[in-house]
Design brief:
Radius of gyration: 29 Å
Catalytic activity: [(1->4)-alpha-D-glucosyl](n) + phosphate = [(1->4)-alpha-D-glucosyl](n-1) + alpha-D-glucose 1-phosphate
Structural class: alpha/beta
InterPro entries: Agluc_phsphrylas (IPR011834), Glyco_trans_35 (IPR000811), Glycogen/Maltodextrin_Phosph (IPR052182), Glycogen_phosphorylase_DUF3417 (IPR024517)
GO molecular function, one term: pyridoxal phosphate binding
Number of helices: 30
Helix content: 25-40%
Shape: globular
Bound molecules: pyridoxal-5'-phosphate
CATH architecture of the largest domain: 3-Layer(aba) Sandwich
Protein name: Alpha-glucan phosphorylase
Low-confidence stretches: none
Distance between the termini: 94 Å
Keywords: Allosteric enzyme, Pyridoxal phosphate
Strand content: 15-25%
Number of strands: 29
CATH topology of the largest domain: Rossmann fold
Number of domains: 4
CATH superfamily of the largest domain: Glycogen Phosphorylase B
Length: 860
C-alpha cells in the first residue's frame, strides 16, 4: 500500500529564559563568533549538523525538550548570559577616536555589490568578490562606521557543485526557503514592508526589500520573486550570475536603481557611495535622475553624483567587465531619457569605453565616480593602464586609478585554536589589527606550542576532508577498499604528511594545471613514501565556462593516474565552510595565476594568518605580501617571466621554478625535525607569516583605508559641490566644457635661459609662456617634473613642482583674459648629478578632486 506522506513543520517555542537565541540567530554576528554558534550546536549537535550550521533553521527544527533542558542547565545559562553580554557590548562599542573625529554627524556610507559572502548559511555569494564584500561589512560593523550595504536576495543563490565519476562538474540549484535565513523584511518609518517599483519595457517590476544584520551593519537585499510580478520577472533574482545578458541587465537595474530607491524608501541619505565592481554602477543613473528632477542640468548633476562616489574594480580580465549591447540599453532606458534630460547619444556616452562598442558598466562607474581603485598595488597599476584611455593625455601611472589592497576578516578565518592562543597571550589583540609591531609577540610563542596548534588544525582538516571524500567517492560508486586506498596518505599521522592546498575558482588564468607541466618530475617528487606530500584541490568553474570545467576534468584524470593516486585529491562543493578548514589546516597554500591577472586573491591571506606558508606567483596581494624578516621569509615567491615574450615559455619556466621550490626548499624544510619531531625552521617561517600578514592584510585595515582615503574624501567633496544649490558643481561643469573646447589651441614654451650647471640646493627659475587660447590665467597651471631618468616610468618617483595658478599679475580687465600668460616656477633641487626635467601645462580648478581628472595635459 502506498500511503501519501504529508509534511508539517512543528516549530518549537523558545523558553523565555533563552529567548535571545532568536536575536542571535538573526544577526550574522554568529558567522564570526564561535561562542554564539556553540550556543546552538551544543543544545543538539546532531540537529546542528543536519541543519548545516544554520541557527535560524536549527531553531525551527530542534526538539522542544532540548531547548527546555538548555533553559534549565546552569552551565549553559552562564555561557548564554556571557554571550548575550558580549553581544551587547559589541553593539555598543564606539568608533575608534581617530575615525570618529573625522566623521560628520550625518555621514553614512552606502556600499553596493552583487554578492555577499558571510557564512555558508546565507548562500548569496559565488567566490572572492562576495566574500570580500562580506568581510567589508563585518569589519565595518567591528569599527562601528555608519553604513548600509545593498545587494540582491537570490532565491537559488549560486549553484551547488558535485563532481561525477568522470570528473564532470554537475551544477544543481535549490530553492531556498527564506524563513530559514537570517533575514527579515525591511520596515519603513510607518511600519510597512518596503518595496520599490521599477520601469521595465512595457511593465512595472516590483522588488521587495529584505534586511540582514551584520553585527551593527545593515544590509538591504532586493528580491523580485513576489506575486505582483509576471513569472519571468519573478525569476530575475533567482540565480547569482545565472541567465543571459537580459537577466544580467535586469539584475543590475534592480541592484543599482532599485537599490537607491530602497534607501530612499527607508529615509536614508548616504554621503558617500561605493560601487563595488561595475555590476552596481546603475546607481549612478538613479542618483542623476533624482538631481535632474530637482532641475539640475544633467552634466552638473553628474559632477555632484561623481564627487561623492568611489568605484572599486576587481578584475584585470577584460571578459570580467559587463558590456551590454546598445540595443539592450535602448530597450531598458529609452523611457527614462526624458526624466534624465538626456538624449540617447549622451546616455550611451556614459557607458562608452574609448575604442570599444557597447555600453560598458566599468565606463559608467568611472564616469560616475571621482575616486577609483584596484585591489592590490600591482592591480592598481594594471587597472590604471587598462582604463588609461579615459584620461587620454595623462600617463597611466598618474591617472586617478589608485589601489586599496584587499584584506580578510580575521575572526571569520582565523582558526579557533589560534584565537584562543592569542586570547591567552594578548587579550586585546582584536584592538591591534592595524599595528604590525604589536604582533611580534607571535615570534615568542614556544615552538612546541605553536606546532601543536598547527597539528590540531591539520587533524581537523584531515577529518573533514576524509568525511567529504568518503561521501563523494561513495556516491561515485567506489568500494570501501578503494576509498581507503585513496585516503591512505591523508590518514598517516598528521605531522608526517605535507599538505598543499589549492582552492579557487577554476578559471584558466589561475592555472590549476601548472603543477602538471612536467609530470615525471612531479611523480619523482611524490614517490617518496617516507615523506609524503598530498595536494588538495577544490573550486567551482562557472557553469558556462567550458575551459574551466575542462580543467576540473584534467585534474580529476591526473588524480586517478597510478603515480598520483591518493596524492592528488579533488574535493567537490567548495564553499565557505570548506574554505575555513582548508586555509587553517594546509601547510602550504598554492597560488599560481598568470601574471598580472590575479587582482588580489585573498585565500592566501587567510592561510598566512593561520600559519600556512604561501607558495605563490608574485601577483595580486602577494606582490606586497611576500616579505622577509631578517633571514626568514613568510613563504615563497615565484617571479613571473615576461609575458610579452612567449606564453608557453613562461608557463614552462614558472612551472619549473615551482617544482624546484617544492623539491629544494618546501619539502626538505618541512621534514627536517628536531629531537621532539618539531620542524623548527618551518615553525620560524610560519610565525613570520602570521606576524607579517595578519596586521597588514585584514579587513579592518582595508576598511580604515577606504574610510580615510576615500569615503571621507567623497563625503566632503560631495558636500562641497552640492552646497549653495550646487554652485561649485556648476562652476566646475562650466570650466570643464570650456577647457574641452579650447584645449587644442593651448600651448606653452620655456622662455628664459637656464644655467648649465648649478650647485645642489641652489634655486633655479623657470619661466613658461602659455598661450591660453581664451582660458583665464588661473584656469591653467604649469608643472615641472625633475629626475635623472628619461624613461617615463621613473618620472613619478621624481620631484614635482607646480604653479597653482597664474603667477604674473592678472589682467585688470576681467572680461578679456590675456592671450598669453607667463608662469614662473622657483625650484630647489636636492638631487645631484645630471638631471632631466620636463614641463607641462594642465587645466586647473579648485573644485577638481584629482588634478588631472579632465585627462588633458600639454607637454612642452
Ligand atoms: C577566500 C575565498 C575565496 C577567494 O579566494 P581567492 O584567493 O581570491 O581565489 C573564494 N571562495 C571562498 C569560499 C573563499 O573563502
Amino acid at each position: 500500500m502506498n500511503a501519501s506522506i504529508y509534511t508539517l513543520e512543528i516549530t518549537p517555542r523558545l523558553p523565555a529564559r533563552i529567548a535571545r537565541l532568536d536575536d542571535l540567530a538573526n544577526n550574522l554576528y554568529y558567522s564570526w563568533t564561535r561562542s554564539v554558534r556553540h550556543l546552538f550546536s551544543r543544545i543538539d549537535p546532531l540537529c546542528w549538523r543536519d541543519t548545516e550550521d544554520n541557527p535560524r533553521l536549527f531553531l525551527l527544527r530542534v526538539a522542544q525538550e532540548k531547548l527546555d533542558e538548555a533553559a534549565e542547565n546552569p552551565v549553559y545559562l552562564a555561557d548564554y548570559d556571557d554571550a548575550c553580554r558580549h553581544f551587547d557590548e559589541y553593539l555598543a562599542r564606539p568608533l575608534p577616536t581617530d575615525l570618529a573625529e573625522r566623521l560628520a554627524p550625518n555621514d553614512l556610507v552606502a556600499y553596493f555589490c552583487a554578492e555577499y559572502g558571510f557564512h555558508e548559511s546565507l548562500p548569496i555569494y559565488s567566490g572572492g568578490l562576495g566574500i570580500l564584500a562580506g568581510d567589508h561589512c563585518k569589519a565595518v560593523s567591528d569599527l562601528g562606521l555608519p553604513f548600509v550595504g545593498v545587494g540582491l536576495m537570490y532565491r537559488q543563490g549560486y549553484f551547488k557543485q558535485e563532481i561525477d565519476a568522470q570528473g564532470n562538474q554537475i551544477a544543481t540549484y535549490q530553492d531556498i526557503d527564506f524563513d530559514t535565513l537570517p533575514i527579515t523584511k525591511a520596515v519603513d518609518a510607518r511600519g510597512g514592508h518596503v518595496s520599490v517599483a521599477l520601469n521595465f519595457p512595457g511593465r512595472i517590476v516590483q522588488a521587495q526589500v529584505w534586511q540582514a544584520q551584520i553585527g551593527r551593519a545593515r544590509l538591504l537585499l532586493l528580491d523580485t520573486d513576489i506575486e505582483e510580478n509576471r513569472d519571468e520577472d519573478r525569476q530575475i533574482t533567482y540565480r547569482l550570475y545565472g541567465g543571459d545578458r537580459r537577466t544580467r541587465i535586469e539584475q543590475e537595474i534592480v541592484l543599482g536603481i532599485g537599490g537607491v530607491r530602497a534607501l530612499r524608501a527607508l529615509g536614508l541619505s548616504p554621503t558617500a557611495w561605493h560601487i563595488n565592481e561595475g555590476h552596481a554602477a546603475f546607481q549612478v543613473i538613479e542618483r542623476l535622475r533624482e538631481l535632474v528632477r530637482q532641475d539640475y542640468p544633467p552634466s552638473v548633476a553628474l559632477e555632484m553624483v561623481a564627487a561623492a562616489t568611489v568605484f572599486t574594480t576587481h578584475t584585470p580580465v577584460p571578459a570580467g567587465h559587463d558590456v551590454f549591447a546598445e540595443a539592450l540599453i535602448h530597450e531598458y532606458f529609452e523611457a527614462l531619457l526624458p526624466e534624465l534630460n538626456l538624449t540617447e547619444e549622451t546616455f550611451l556616452a556614459l557607458g562608452r569605453q574609448p575604442h570599444q562598442a557597447g555600453f560598458n558598466m566599468t565606463a559608467l562607474a568611472l564616469h560616475g565616480s571621482r575616486q577609483h581603485n584596484g585591489v592590490s598595488a600591482i592591480h592598481g597599476r594594471v587597472a590604471a593602464e587598462m582604463v588609461s584611455a579615459f584620461w587620454p593625455e595623462v600617463p597611466a601611472e598618474e591617472n586617478p586609478m589608485t589601489h586599496v589592497t584587499n584584506g580578510v576578516h580575521v575572526d571569520t578565518f582565523l582558526a579557533r585554536e589560534f584565537s584562543q592562543l592569542f586570547d591567552s597571550l594578548r587579550r586585546d589583540w582584536r584592538l591591534h589589527l592595524r599595528d604590525q609591531s604589536f604582533w611580534s609577540f607571535v615570534d615568542t610563542i614556544p615552538d612546541e606550542r605553536f606546532w601543536s596548534v598547527r597539528c590540531a588544525l591539520k587533524v581537523d582538516l584531515i577529518r573533514d576532508v576524509c568525511q567529504r571524500l568518503t561521501r563523494q567517492l561513495e556516491s561515485d560508486g567506489l568500494s570501501d577498499i578503494r576509498i581507503d586506498r585513496t585516503l591512505r596518505y591523508l590518514k598517516r599521522r598528521e605531522s608526517e604528511v605535507l599538505i598543499v592546498g589549492f582552492a579557487r575558482r577554476f578559471a584558466t588564468y589561475k592555472r590549476a594545471n601548472l603543477l602538471f607541466r612536467d609530470r615525471e618530475r612531479l611523480a619523482r617528487l611524490l614517490a617518496d613514501e617516507q615523506r609524503p606530500i598530498v595536494f588538495l584541490f577544490a573550486g567551482k568553474a562557472h557553469p558556462a565556462d567550458e575551459p574551466g570545467k575542462a580543467l576540473i576534468r584534467e585534474i580529476w584524470q591526473i588524480a586517478n593516474e597510478p603515480a598520483f593516486h591518493g596524492r592528488i585529491l579533488l574535493l567537490e562543493g567548495y564553499d565557505m565552510a570548506l574554505a575555513r578548514k582548508l586555509v587553517a589546516g594546509c601547510d602550504v597554500w598554492l597560488n599560481i595565476p598568470e601574471y598580472p591577472l590575479e587582482a588580489s586573491g585573498t585565500s592566501g591571506q587567510k592561510a598566512s594568518m593561520n600559519g600556512a606558508l604561501n607558495l605563490s606567483v608574485a601577483d595580486g596581494w602577494w606582490g606586497e605580501g611576500y616579505q622577509e624578516q631578517g633571514e626568514v621569509a613568510n613563504g615563497w615567491s615565484i617571479k613571473p617571466y615576461n609575458r610579452s615574450f612567449n606564453h608557453e615559455y613562461c608557463d614552462n619556466e614558472e612551472a619549473s621554478d615551482l617544482l624546484t621550490l617544492l623539491e629544494g626548499e618546501v619539502k626538505p624544510m618541512f621534514f627536517k625535525r628536531n629531537e621532539n619531531g618539531v620542524p623548527v625552521d618551518w615553525v620560524k617561517h610560519a610565525k613570520v607569516a602570521i606576524h607579517t600578514v595578519l596586521p597588514q592584510f585584514n579587513a579592518t585595515r582595508m576598511v580604515c583605508d577606504y574610510i580615510t582615503r576615500h569615503y571621507l574624501v567623497a563625503a566632503r567633496h560631495g558636500d562641497k559641490l552640492t552646497a549653495n544649490g550646487g554652485a561649485m558643481a556648476k562652476d566646475l561643469d562650466t570650466f570643464k566644457r570650456k577647457v574641452r573646447e579650447l584645449w587644442p589651441g593651448v600651448s606653452g614654451r620655456l622662455i628664459n635661459e637656464l644655467p648649465h650647471r648649478i650647485h645642489s640646493h641652489e634655486e633655479i627659475h623657470l619661466e613658461v609662456e602659455v598661450n591660453l587660447n581664451g582660458l583665464r590665467p588661473e584656469e591653467v597651471a604649469v608643472e615641472c617634473l625633475f629626475g635623472h631618468d628619461h624613461t617615463q616610468d621613473n618620472w613619478l618617483t621624481q620631484q614635482r613642482f607646480s604653479t597653482d595658478s597664474a603667477t604674473s599679475a592678472p589682467p585688470t580687465d576681467a572680461a578679456a583674459p590675456p592671450r598669453t600668460q607667463i608662469y614662473r616656477l622657483a625650484i630647489r633641487i636636492n638631487l645631484s648629478g645630471l638631471q632631466n626635467f620636463r614641463l607641462r601645462v594642465v587645466p586647473s580648478h579648485p573644485a577638481q578632486l584629482h588634478p588631472y581628472e579632465l585627462g588633458l595635459m600639454k607637454w612642452l
